[in-house]
Amino acid sequence: PYDSELTSVADDQGNYTIDLYDTIFAGNETLRVTATDLAGNKSEATIIQVIDATPPEAPKVNQVTSDDNKVTGTSEENTTVTLTLPDGTELTGQTDDQGNYTIDIPANKQFQGGESIQLTTTDAAGNKSAAASVKATTKEEQKPDPNPEEDKEAPTKPSDLKETEDRKSVV
Asked: Which residue from 119, 122, 131 is spatially nearest to 54, judged by alpha carbons?
């Protein structure tokens, strides 16, 4: 916990372990560690910088079609998203403070449909996510079925309805 003092007793070799309990660190926090002898004399503090070693989650990517000239999606905010094209070309984009990203696709790298692309996220500490994969679809694959089966059957009527205690809803 922040601004808390945690203690431990060293063994006869001077080794100790301090349990940080369920404290979750984001990285870049500072811990101050001191030693106190049996007479109550306290050492100067040793400063330890907490290192972010947790990779971000794989980025989420919106559907990609052969008509798209950009790839969009969401990931951890303020990170770099890397898009790897089938030919190995890597394109990057930055997420904003809401986690949204847009990566422009150069005209000479436009999708034809069927290509599999991979995206990863790298945070400021250099931790890289697992890859997310998406397959680009063609414009034809996006068209709705011209002869969908029509649903002409009415749904079942609601039953077993109860009014809530505050009388503002029915469930």
From this structure: 122
Q: Mind listing the pLDDT tens digit for each residue in 18-70?
A: 887 667 777 778 888 999 998 999 999 999 888 888 899 999 999 999 889 99
Taking the CA atoms of 55, 57, 62 and 64 in sequence, report the sign of the dihedral they define.
Answer: positive
- Round to whole Å and give the CA distance between 158 and 169: 14
Cβ contact 71:59 at 8 Å: no
CB 73 within 8 A of CB 120: no
Q: Look up residue 65 and give its DSSP letter.
A: B
DSSP 113: S
Question: pTM of the full predicted structure?
Answer: 0.66
Q: How far is residue 138's CA from residue 68's CA, in Å, rounded to a whole number?
A: 10
